[in-house]
Methyltransferase domain-containing protein (Panacibacter microcysteis), 362 residues
Amino acid sequence: MQFFSTDKKSALEAKNMAQFIAFGPVIFQVARIMRNSGILHEIEASGSAGLTLQEIVARVQLPNYGVRVLLESGLGIGLVIINDERYRITKTGHFILHDPLTIVNMDFMHDVNYNGMFYLEDAIKNERPEGLKVFGNWQTIYEGLSQLPKHVQKSWFAFDHFFSDTAFPAVLPHVYNKHNHIKKLLDIGGNTGKWAIASTTFDPEVHITIMDLPGQLNVAKTTIAEKGLTDRVSFHPANILDATQPFPKGFDAIWMSQFLDCFSEDEITSIMQRCHEAIDENGFVYVLEAFWDKQRFEAAAFCLQQTSVYFTALANGNSQMYNSEIFKNAVLKGGFEIVEEINNIGLSHTLWKLKKRTTVTA
Ligand SMILES: C[S@@+](CC[C@H](N)C(=O)[O-])C[C@H]1O[C@@H](n2cnc3c(N)ncnc32)[C@H](O)[C@@H]1O
């Protein structure tokens, strides 16, 4: 909690911040349009010379009035500065334009969350993803993922993959090594097959079974076939929220990456209990998650805390990016103990290796 134990702002800074919050939707849309319309790009490309309003209008071919309003708003936001009527880009403007994390977050917020966030208050009260109705009539976003508009899917997957892509290369050697002897692994929530592809490429002998909702598995099946990995990867369609469905057995290890955060604490415990039934005493469960209280950088903790609200309003109404202690409690209740913890993997992840808890008799 290192970042969140003191009120660091002066009164003036706090009042400025409060205005950023009050005008939040305006600031967001202005920054996004200045990025997408080419305004920031043109100003940056002009270098130290900068550009006048008229020069920017000519380059982006938008009405003078609209560009002026955006630029003046951009001054207050801190995206651009003005001297002698010439606009130049700021460091924040640079990050809006080029930083991959910012781009992925901004697209995810606009395409997936923006309209649905209007229903956050109802979602909090009802513990349901009330914002999801802007896309369709599903219980959770995961049921509808394969049917979302293409540009929404694109931003959702880019967001999801951005975080796991940076973590997977770093964790592969921890999972597949001579001490673990993993030949058969069950990847729960395997999504588009990224972990299955990374695993079978890294370890020539391992066989992966992806367990996910049928809609997601159709996408994964196509990708796996295209990669020529049909012999190395199997599929197990299931809705894990149906607690009567037992997990398939016979695996050396179970892998869950960015998966358990899609569920409430009780649901996490139920999933872990079923993992407990599915593996034997020598089996492992690997959990790869990002916890906001385990971050090195305040911006990383901030991103995770705000991503939680997507789960509330859009995804399922009852899960979040967890604080590690709350998550640990829900996981261990399923009958496991943590035998290894590695933090600071990729952008923001923690890897837990879990074993069945040995029962202590009195
Ligand atoms: C956030 S994605 C994680 C994907 C991948 N493991 C990664 O690390 O990038 C969560 C995955 O869980 C799946 N999922 C969500 N709810 C599910 C459910 N009720 N039953 C089975 N799979 C589910 C989704 O379809 C999705 O593929």
Remarks:
- DSSP finds 15 helices and nine strands in the chain.
- The chain has two domains: 2-98, 116-356.
- Residues 116-356 form a domain with the Rossmann fold fold (CATH 3.40.50.150).
- The pocket of S-adenosylmethionine is lined by residues 142, 145, 160, 164, 189-191, 194, 212-213, 216, 239-241, 257-259, 262 (CB under 6 Å).
